[in-house]
Amino acid sequence: MAEYTGDCLCGAVAFRIEGEPEPIQVCHCSQCRKAQGTPFATNMPVARAAFHLLRGEDCMAEFESSPGKRRVFCKRCGSPLYSCKDSLPDVLRVRAGLINEPLAVRPAAHIYTDSKCNWWAIDDALPQFPHAYTPGTDAR
């Protein structure tokens, strides 16, 4: 079984993921852009049961960015850790940049491209969706 570790910038929060995460979703929504301070966020859906916190629970904080959606981050260094939705209680969207080991998964799609920033061109061949995308469906 695959296993990955990750931690925040200051190292206060560390975690382990058991198993292979789902393909990366590149999210261009305005909330992800503001939360990351970048033109997009790279999120990996991970089963909550596969995510194991190794240390730093006391350093974690969360912010409800919209009703039923929480963004969890390290309150010491500000690193975004994951987001979760009440409507999908068994899934965490872990930030791919936190993972220490090389990932076997790759980006699958760009989502929320209707709100992407105007200064970053999407110039790859991945599918683009103006709103949300659920793997295995055509949500265009």
Structure summary:
By secondary structure, the protein is mostly beta strands. It contains 1 helix and 10 strands, in the order βββαβββββββ.
Q: Whole-number average pLDDT?
A: 94
- Span of the ends, CA to CA: 34 Å
> What is the level 1 CATH name?
Mainly Beta
Classify the secondary structure makeup into a structural class: mainly beta
Rg calc? 15 Å
Number of strand segments: 10
Q: Per DSSP, what share of the residues sits in E-state strands of 2 or more residues?
A: 35-45%
Helical run tally: 1
Query: Poorly predicted ranges (pLDDT <50, ≥5 residues)?
Result: none
Order of adjacent strands in the largest pleated sheet: 6-7-8-9-4-3-10
Give the CATH topology: Metal Binding Protein, Guanine Nucleotide Exchange Factor, Chain A
Characterise this structure.
- The chain is mainly beta and 140 residues long.
- The chain has one domain (3-115): Beta Complex (Metal Binding Protein, Guanine Nucleotide Exchange Factor, Chain A), CATH 2.170.150.
- Helices cover 5% and strands 41% of the residues.
- It contains one helix and ten strands.
- The chain has one helix spanning 30-36; strands at residues 3-7, 14-18, 24-27, 41-47, 51-55, 60-66, 69-74, 80-85, 88-95, 107-111.
- It has a seven-stranded mixed sheet with strand order 6-7-8-9-4-3-10. Strands 1-2-5 form a three-stranded antiparallel sheet, with no helix packed on it.
- A hairpin with a 6-residue loop joins strand 1 (3-7) and strand 2 (14-18).
